[in-house]
Write a structure and sequence with these properties.
The chain is α/β, with parallel strands linked by helices. It contains 8 helices and 7 strands, in the order E-H-E-H-E-E-H-H-E-E-H-H-H-E-H. The chain has a 5-stranded parallel β-sheet, sandwiched between helices. Strands 3-4 form a two-stranded antiparallel sheet. Helix 1 packs across helix 8 and helix 5 runs antiparallel to helix 6. The radius of gyration is 16 Å and the shape is globular. The N and C termini lie close together (6 Å).
Length: 170
């Protein structure tokens, strides 16, 4: 049976990981967080002192190609312009109100600069624009991600989409 590949993207703190893990637990799709894969495979190209984080070696992330060919994968990452367009059947960009996002990132202990830059990224919808520029607009969908009720609504919506995709493609 053919299964779709899904990309969950958006600013750090919008709920990609929570949504992705819960979606995998409710479907037959597998969840992968690119940050975790990078740590496990040492897919880094240095360290950013200003933001206090490792720099992802985007060229080495293409090693995901074989995993993506099989289908049935949910990928979680805050960027998307370096992923191959052919990898994903649908892209969901999660967005969160600035006050909610600020609180989430503050709880994570983000530095003031990192916190402000991520909130600004959300204000200007940088990752939504990146997704729209990187994929066919009809496969890119915006989802609100502020409260638990929206998480449930998003899960219901995506699960219905998966069921329809499987029915239409098998």
């Amino acid at each position: 049976m053919r299964l779709p590949n899904i990309l969950l993207t958006g600013t750090p703190g919008v709920g990609k990981t929570t949504l992705g893990k819960e979606l995998a637990s409710r479907t037959i799709l597998k969840y992968d967080n690119v940050g975790d894969l990078a740590r496990e495979g040492q897919l880094y190209d240095g360290f950013d002192e200003e933001y206090e984080c490792a720099i992802l070696d985007e060229d080495r992330v293409v090693e995901l190609e074989n995993k993506m060919k099989g289908g049935g994968v949910i990928i979680d990452y805050h960027g998307c312009d370096f992923f191959s367009e052919r990898w994903f059947h649908i892209v969901f960009v999660l967005q969160t109100d600035n006050s909610v996002l600020y609180t989430r990132l503050e709880k994570r202990g983000y530095s003031v600069k990192k916190l402000q830059d991520n909130v600004q990224c959300e204000i200007f919808q940088i990752l939504y624009e990146e997704a729209m520029a990187s994929y066919k607009p009809e496969v890119v969908h915006w989802l609100p991600s502020n409260v638990p009720e929206e998480l449930e609504s998003n899960l219901d919506q995506i699960i219905k989409w998966i069921e329809e995709w499987i029915k239409d493609n098998n």
